[in-house]
Specification:
By secondary structure, the chain is of the alpha+beta class. It contains 33 helices and 26 strands. Strands 10, 11, 14, 15, 16, 17, 18, 19 and 20 form a 9-stranded mixed sheet that branches. An 8-stranded mixed sheet has the order 8-26-25-24-9-21-23-22, with helices on both faces. Strands 1, 2, 3, 4, 5, 6 and 7 form a 7-stranded antiparallel sheet that branches. About 1% of the residues have low confidence.
Length: 864
């Protein structure tokens, strides 16, 4: 049943075949069987073993497993053990990461109310919330969590916090009359309440219209199930790289094996050549190095108030080209603040009010007395608009506690969403003065006079027009306006609704949730970095546009649209228009996902911020989901890949800069690993083609790939950013790792290292095969340690910022190599020849250093 807000109460009761007495127990039981339990469902989850097994579904991993099996069959059990240990460790890490990411739906379930008060057969009773069914009559009071979606039948000043669903922090005043509109955003359905919303004030009788997955919260859960987590650009690049590398390795291994057999090599020896080539080609440490590099990035970001949940998101931030940000609390302060006031026919800013205290003091006093808010040690308790008035009073030198003590409240008529007014009675200057606060249009219609400079004047048409125009001017600036009036009563007696007539208008106070101080500079940084900032909010279009203009999101030529307009756009139309729209107001969760997808369909990497349950599906759909740490719900935090501990948009911009640096470092470390591997591949192929002995054993190559190579690669990930990263445009997500320039550099550097390694191998051949293998291994290992300095960046090391980790990695790696070369107990494991002389060692050092010397000289000559 759709558009419940539009139907009359009687029509709704008839449609659901119920009455104000509620359902009978028998009917409730039947409906429970028909509609199911009032709880969220989820799809079948993968088991631990299935997820663990899936970690091995990668061609590179399969090749390594085959290499391990062949190594075992040919007697190389040590190599088999090492390879399998590395693969199992990586699989365990991947499994743990998978299950950490599956918590969003659990948090949604935790938001459900445990019990609910209903009418059953004319009797009030309490039932488990899971047993609510459509047609139940639900009783709500302050403090309750709404257990299902429903239509308000009887309203007693009900105020509900729907911030989890709409993202807006202000309480919503509910009504019990139909709203005659076909299309209505969720935030404007004032006669409806929704599951998981908190009742903050009043009470109501509600007809349950939706339970379980048919509630708005259920729809969000369904969207979260369908929303696909996007692979980051690095994941896509690495996946593409792995496939290409796997094919290349298999082809080359087959060629080398075939050549060996064709040349008459023993079958086992030919197999060992192929295994050595596979182990040489596959960068076993790559996965770990990338993971550790991302983890280093997360530590840096945590110090800047950005906690990364999904490691891959660190790098993804580097190519974000669109940031879709919530308004309230992220771009704004999430604190209503008085901006302007209209009193005695003049407009004052808050700064001017502080200098004209006497003029505005009476209005400020009135705003404090006709007010239920409280400030306890700067902690605001109550409606945000009311606490904003108290803060304003303090800012001009007043004290609300002293004022309330001097003029205590004698009588009151509480705020009512139908009247849109609140009235209180106080004794002031020997008179009983009724103070009234409310919506400007409602209050002004009840006024007959106006107070100007202490004098009471008739409310003429001109004065009324002036007040109306000023109210319109405030509203057009996105300000929320309250009007104030008073009336002198003859005695202290209970107030009646009739008393709220023939009032004396005293002034207007306009307020808003102002932008954060850092928001405008952060938006400017975004645009400088080639990133498009977009505002998505549940607030009204006028308010959102005013804030967006102030901070630079809404510029000339940009559009602001509401959810209703978005509803009438097809996906194709939205894709065409999305780059021209900077502000989205009054949007639903479905709209947010559509906006994110529209940007993604145009080839952009989209980041989405949010704090409410309503944001969770879009956070999951976005390339980078960013939740708020202070105001965010657990659901949004679980769905996001990054959490801001300060809820600040400016922190996102810092994280983007960090993400760009992380990607640069990871790419440099990959270049380091692959150029070293390329050298090993070339040496194995050359020796195979010329019928020479095997230059390395599998264990030697694993020692290089896993130990001595890992240290410089980690050191590269510790590099500090060079230059202004925010002056660069976002990296294209389609740009893979294996670009033309990257492959040229990698091939040239690998060839240089291979050439000097072959020289060492030939020198060793003049002694014996064992010495050839030992010298090739030592030269390749040390050359790759030296090469770590080249891969720190594209400039000469003399123009790079200091990185003590690079020197530490070099010395530790060299120490490990020395242990293998000079400790006899390790010679058997690593196939080391014992006859190394001082001359051989100097030859190894000279040959290993030659490629780095040449690369650095070229950079210096080019002025890099």
């Amino acid at each position: 049943m759709e558009k419940q807000w539009k139907l009359s109460q009687q029509a709704l009761l008839e449609a659901l075949n119920t009455s104000m007495d509620g359902l009978t127990q028998e009917e409730a039981k039947k409906r429970l069987e028909q509609f199911g339990y009032n709880k969220l469902q989820e799809g079948k989850r993968k088991g631990v073993l299935q997820v663990f097994a899936e970690q091995f579904a990668d061609l590179l991993v399969v090749i390594l497993i085959i290499a391990a099996v062949i190594s075992a069959l040919t007697g190389g059990i040590e190599g088999t053990i090492v390879i399998l240990a590395v693969l199992i460790l990586n699989a365990i890490l991947g499994t743990v990461q998978h299950f950490k990411a599956q918590k969003s739906l659990d948090s949604l379930k935790a938001m459900a109310a445990p019990n609910a008060r209903v009418m059953r057969g004319g009797q009030k009773t309490e039932v488990p919330a899971a047993e609510l069914v459509p047609g139940d009559i639900l009783l709500l009071e302050a403090g309750d969590v709404t257990a299902a979606d429903g239509r308000v039948l009887q309203n007693y000043s009900l105020q509900v916090s729907e911030s989890a669903l709409t993202g807006e922090s202000e309480n919503v005043n509910k009504i019990d009359t139909p709203i005659d509109k076909d299309e209505l955003p969720l935030g404007d359905r004032l006669n409806m309440v929704y599951s998981s919303s908190l009742v903050s004030y009043g009470r109501a009788v509600v007809l349950v219209t939706g339970t379980g997955m048919q509630t708005e919260i259920g729809k969000i859960a369904d969207l979260m199930e369908s929303a696909q987590e996007k692979a980051t650009p690095l994941q896509r690049s690495l996946d593409d790289f792995s496939k290409k590398l796997s094919i290349i390795i298999m082809v080359i291994c087959a060629i080398v094996f075939g050549l060996g057999v064709w040349r008459g090599m023993h079958f086992t020896d030919a197999l060992m050549f192929a295994v050595a080539l596979a182990v040489a080609a596959i960068p076993e440490a790559l996965s770990s190095i990338v993971t550790i590099g991302l983890a280093i990035g997360t530590q840096k970001m945590a110090k800047q108030n950005a906690i990364i949940k999904n490691l891959r998101a660190v790098e993804g931030l580097g190519c974000v080209s669109v940031i879709c940000s919530d308004k309230t609390g992220t771009l704004t302060q999430n604190r209503m603040t008085v901006q302007k006031m209209y009193v005695d026919g003049k407009v004052y800013t808050t700064e001017e009010a502080a200098q004209n205290g006497a003029t505005v003091q009476y209005l400020a006093t009135q705003s404090v007395l006709c007010n239920d808010g409280v400030l306890n040690d700067e902690v605001a308790v109550g409606d945000p608009t009311e606490t904003a008035l108290l803060t304003f009073c303090r800012s001009i030198g007043g004290n609300e506690a002293d004022t309330r003590k001097e003029f205590p409240r004698l009588q009151e008529i509480p705020f009512d969403s139908d009247r849109k007014l609140m009235s209180t009675l106080h004794e002031r200057n020997g008179q009983f003065e009724m103070l009234v606060k409310g919506a400007p249009d409602v209050l002004l219609s009840r006024c007959v006079a106006v107070e100007r400079n202490g004098t009471i004047l008739d409310l003429t048409t001109d004065i009324q027009l002036d007040i109306t125009q000023q109210n319109g001017a405030f509203s057009s600036q996105g300000l929320r306006v309250l009007a104030f009036a008073k009336k002198i009563l003859p005695e202290n007696r209970p107030l009646t609704l009739e008393d709220e007539q023939d009032l004396i208008f005293t002034g207007l106070i306009a307020m808003m949730d102002p932008p954060r101080v850092e928001s405008a500079p952060a938006v400017a940084d975004c645009r400088r970095a080639g990133i498009r900032p977009v505002m998505i909010t549940g607030d009204h279009k006028i308010t959102a546009s005013a804030i967006a203009k102030q901070i630079g999101i809404l510029q000339d030529g940009d559009r602001a649209v509401e959810g209703a307009e978005l509803e009438n756009m097809s996906d194709e139309q939205l894709r065409e228009e999305v780059e021209h729209i900077s502000v989205y107001a009054r949007v639903s969760p479905e709209h947010k996902i559509r906006i994110v997808r529209a940007w993604q369909d145009r080839g952009h990497v989209a980041a989405m911020t949010g704090d409410g349950v309503n944001d969770a599906p879009a956070l999951k759909q976005a390339d980078i989901g960013i939740a708020m740490g202070i105001t965010g719900t657990e659901v949004s935090k679980d769905a996001a890949s990054m959490i801001l501990t300060d809820d600040n948009f400016a922190t996102i911009v810092k994280a983007v800069a960090n993400g760009r640096n992380v990607y640069t470092n990871i790419k440099n470390s990959i270049q380091f690993l692959l150029s070293g591997n390329a050298a090993a591949i070339l040496v194995v192929i050359i020796t195979s083609l010329f019928g020479l002995p095997l230059p390395f054993t599998a264990v030697q190559l694993l020692f290089i790939n896993l130990l001595t190579d890992s240290l410089p690669a980690l050191a590269v990930n510790m590099e500090k950013p060079t230059g202004d990263l925010l002056n660069q445009k976002p990296r294209s997500p389609k740009e893979g790792i294996l670009t033309k320039d990257f492959l040229q550099t990698l091939g040239l550097q690998g060839a240089l290292i291979a050439a000097t390694t072959m020289c060492a191998f030939i020198i060793g051949m003049n002694i014996n095969d064992g010495m050839a293998c030992t010298m090739a291994f030592a030269t390749l290992c040390l050359a790759r340690l030296f090469h770590g300095f080249n891969c720190r960046g594209s400039r000469s090391i003399f123009r790079m910022p200091s990185n003590p980790y690079s020197f530490g990695a070099f010395f530790v790696g060299t120490l490990l190599l020395m242990l293998v070369l000079f400790i006899p107990a390790l010679h058997g494991l690593f196939d080391i020849d014992n006859a190394l002389t001082t001359i051989n060692i100097l030859q190894i050092i000279g040959l290993a250093f030659a490629p780095t010397l040449l690369i650095q000289l070229v950079r210096i000559i080019k002025g890099k």
